């Protein structure tokens, strides 16, 4: 007696596959971006202790700064990051519909462009020049890392037999 494979197979319907790719980007993108931003804030919190050589205090401040900001950043990540994630996911899904492949550049290019536009559109709201540099760097990095995570997840979930997706 054979048992059915419990692992769900990727949808064969191209429209369902595109919707699944969009769902991956909508679900993981804002969360990943929020975590990246919070890691940056944790680094800022720990930099003085780290510079003075107190590694235990730096670790405590890094963990505390990261975890505290996550409480606020996750909801904000979805409020502010859902549209950019869907835009990036739409590009990836569109290229997948066209070519049958999930391309890395189709995830990175729109994410970085959106990140740069967002960073420079909001960076002037930061009071200090150092703060603006941090904000712009963190925002662009968050967009790029989120795109990479979503691309890898979508590629793993929606892999086609015998098809390369790089």
Give an overview of the whole structure.
The chain is mainly α. The chain has one domain. The chain has 4 helices and no strands. The protein is elongated and about 55 Å long. The termini are far apart. The mean pLDDT is 87.
Structure at a glance:
The chain contains 4 helices and no strands. With 166 residues, it is mainly alpha-helical.
Shape descriptor reads elongated
Briefly note the structural class of the backbone.
Answer: mainly alpha
Distance linking N and C termini:
39 Å
Q: Give the helix level as a range of percent.
A: over 70%
- Measured by DSSP, the beta-strand proportion falls in under 5%
- What is the count of distinct domains? 1
Report the uncertain regions. Answer: none
Number of strands: 0
Question: Could you tell me the radius of gyration in angstroms?
Answer: 19 Å
Biggest sheet layout: none
Features of the shown structure:
4 helices; mainly alpha; 166 residues; elongated
